[in-house]
């Protein structure tokens, strides 16, 4: 059987001495303050994306709008779930989730969009998903083994953002060419 790198008695003593740190132990290998900042930026991104998808859901009009609007609503719900997971992780790490509406868009990696046309809405949502994919890929790589739990949260979000991008690309491809589809 493999031995622990640190004597179990030492681990137990540290756990008792630093009980107020919750899940953060000496084994935590990331820059906690930077991780909390990155998590709050991702939280802002997810909130902005939720709001953008909600706006697009309510304002989508036209002959082909029903299935597209349904996709916008589904994505809005999933982006809200992402925001909830990020806020939970921030609190778990001893931080405070930043929901300040005055600074949401400046902290968000994605932009808010008020496009009026269906194709433009889809394109702007696809751009935002691609931004999230690029950002979250970098975050996963940056976290490495320093914070595997936060890395897994971002890996899960990344997989769903990739699914969203694929959904949106599919919508663009299915729209008639006179609406801007392929």
Automatic annotation (TrEMBL):
PROSITE patterns registered for this protein in UniProt: FERRITIN_LIKE (PS50905)
Alphabetized Pfam families for the sequence: Ferritin
One GO cellular component, as annotated: cytosol
Key word Magnesium present: no
Keyword flag Iron: yes
Recorded GO MF terms: ferric iron binding; ferroxidase activity; heme binding
Keywords of the record: Iron, Iron storage, Metal-binding
Residue positions binding Fe cation: 46, 82, 129, 161, 164
Every Ferritin-like diiron domain range: 29-179
Cofactor(s) needed: heme b
InterPro entries per UniProt: Dps-like (IPR014490), Ferritin-like (IPR012347), Ferritin-like_diiron (IPR009040), Ferritin-like_SF (IPR009078), Ferritin_DPS_dom (IPR008331)
GO biological process, one term: intracellular iron ion homeostasis
Cross-referenced Gene3D superfamilies: 1.20.1260.10
Protein name per its UniProtKB record: Ferritin-like domain-containing protein
Originating organism: Streptantibioticus silvisoli
């Amino acid at each position: 059987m493999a031995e622990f790198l640190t004597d179990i008695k030492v681990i137990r003593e540290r756990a008792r001495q630093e009980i107020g740190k919750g899940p953060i132990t000496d084994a935590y290998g990331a820059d906690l303050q930077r991780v909390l900042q990155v998590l709050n930026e991702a939280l802002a991104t997810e909130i902005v994306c939720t709001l953008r998808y909600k706006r697009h859901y309510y304002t989508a009009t036209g002959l082909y709008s029903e299935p597209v609007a349904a996709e916008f609503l589904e994505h809005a719900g999933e982006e809200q779930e992402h925001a909830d997971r990020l806020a939970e992780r921030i609190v778990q790490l001893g931080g405070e989730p930043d929901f300040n509406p005055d600074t949401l868009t400046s902290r968000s990696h994605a932009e808010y969009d008020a496009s009026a046309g269906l194709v433009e809405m889809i394109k702007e949502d696809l751009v935002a998903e691609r931004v999230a994919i690029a950002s979250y890929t970098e975050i996963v790589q940056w976290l490495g083994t320093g914070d595997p739990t936060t890395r897994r949260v971002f890996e899960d979000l990344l997989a769903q953002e990739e699914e969203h991008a694929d959904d949106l690309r599919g919508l663009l491809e299915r729209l008639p060419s006179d609406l801007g589809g392929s």
